[in-house]
Amino acid sequence: MFPEYDVIVVGAGHAGCEAAAAAANMGSKVMLVTMNMQTIAQMSCNPAMGGIAKGQIVREIDALGGYSGIISDESMIQFRMLNLSKGPAMWSPRTQNDRMKFAEKWRLALERISNLDFWQEMVNGIIVKDGKACGVITGMGLKILSKTVILTNGTFLNGVIHIGEKQFGGGRTGEKAATGITEQLIELGFESGRMKTGTPPRVDGRSLNYHVMEEQPGDENPWKFSYSNTAPLTNQRSCHITYTNTQVHKVLEKGFDQSPMFTGRIKGIGPRYCPSIEDKINRFSERDRHQIFVEPEGWNTVEVYVNGFSTSLPENIQNEALRLIPGFENVKMFRPGYAIEYDYFPPTQLSASLETHLIKNLYFAGQINGTTGYEEAACQGLMAGINAHRNVHNLNAFILQRSQAYIGVLIDDLINKGTNEPYRMFTSRAEFRILLRQDNADIRLTELGHSIGLADDNRLEATLDKKLETKEVIELLHNFKVSPESINDNLENVQTATIREKVSCHKLIKRPRLSIKILRSMSKELNKLCLKYSDEVLEQAEIQIKYETYIDKEEKLVVKIAGFENHKIPMVLDYSKVHALSSEAVEKLNKVRPETIGQASRISGVSPADISIIMVYLGK
Question: 244 — phi, psi (to 5°)?
Answer without folding.
Answer: -75, 175
